[in-house]
Every structure is written in structure tokens, then in C-alpha cells.
Amino acid sequence: MALKYLKDTEVNIDNVLIMTGDFNIRDYSRDPDFHNHSSHKDTLIDITDSLYLELSEPTNYVPTRYSNNQHKSNSVIDLTFLRQDSLEYDNHFIHPDWYLTSDHILLTINIAIFEEDIQTKKHIIIKNSEEEDKFIIELIEAIKELNMDSAQSKEALEHIIQMFTNYTKKIWYKYSKIVNITKHSKVWWDENCHRDLEKYRQTKKMKTGNNSRVQSRRQNAIFLI
Q: Which regions in the chain score pLDDT beneath 50?
């Protein structure tokens, strides 16, 4: 019933990395003690294909469920599906000694976690401040002093642009101050942003518009969810 529901329903789940569990489907392709083909297996594969997942190969081919009934064979019904274009991992492990009191054993997969440089501080210039006025004045003067007469080649133009970029950074750091990034560091947030965020959470849809400022706020709102 679950497979039929998923197959007949448009499932919209983005960026699925892994799907694993007891699918309760026996098929000869995975279960050496089972000699029949299951149509449910085909349905499951169709669903996982739509999610860009593929069946993972275990590092050791052993049963995943051990029967308490001596007249019934052990089975392979616990499966793992991984994202098709994943380079970080490709196989899972079956641990036949880790099932304890359960009749299912444990499946594991190693996922590498890489270090990430998280920015905790930033430079800002407060809007309508004296520092903002001075920054704009010096920036205008820098633009006026650009010698575009020497931009007779691509290399010369790139040199002028690089010099202007360096000077812009210099005066930015001259008049900006360092602040800590916190959950309250949203000086752009206003009641309209709050309204759009609540509407998005309720409908999962954002109406489109031509106002670039509104669009920018919406993108920030979606990013923060």
C-alpha cells in the first residue's frame, strides 16, 4: 500500500542523499534463498529512480533479517539507496553480530564530514552614518581619478579595474567596523519580510513579482528557514 501510494502520488523531495530501512520485499536479485521475482521490487526501483537514488551494494552479502522460526529461512529485506551522483560514499555495511534482541541486524554507512570555515564576523558600514558619507565621498573621488585614456588594451583595462578594486577595499576597511554575526544580524528584516515568510511557511509558495527588493527579501527568507 505504501509503494502504491508513492507511485501514484507526485513525490516532490529535493536533494535526497540516502534512504534506508526495512522494505519488507524479498527478491531473488538480493536474496539467495529466495528464487522468485517480486513486482514490488520493480515498483520500489521506479520510485527510487524518480528520487535519483540507486540501490547500494553491501560490502558483505549476508541476510538482514533472521527468522525465529526454524522452518522459515533468513531474508534480505533491509536495503539502502544512495544518491546516484554521490562521490562521498558508495557502499554500506551489514553487521550480523549487532542485532541483539531484534530479528533485524544493523546496516551502517560511513559519511565523511569535512571541515567548514564558518564566518562569525563581518565588516559593516551603518546606513546614513558619517562613515558612510566619507566612504561614498572617497569612492567618488577614486572614480574621478581613473585614467581611462590608458585603457588601450584588455590588459591595461584589467589593470585599471584591479587598482580600483584594491582602492575600494582599502577605503571600505578604513570606514567599516567589525561586528559579530548573530541571529539578530538582520538589519534588513522588516514586517514585510515577516509577512512573506509566514505566507511561505503556510503555502510553500511565494508569489512572483518585479520588485527586486522584494525578491531579494524573499530569497533571504527562504534561506533562513
A: 206-225
Q: What is the DSSP letter of 70?
A: T
Q: What is this structure's pTM? A: 0.49
Cβ atoms 192, 214 nearer than 8 A: yes
Q: How many angstroms separate the CA atoms of 60 and 103, rounded?
A: 18
How open is the CA angle 217-223-225, to the nearest 5 degrees?
105
Q: Report helix, strand or coil for 215.
A: helix
CA dihedral sign of residues 38, 44, 49, 53: negative
- Helix/strand number for the chain, H first, E second: 6, 8
- The burial of 176, by beta-carbon neighbours within 10 Å (0-12 exposed, 13-18 middle, 19 or more buried), is given as middle
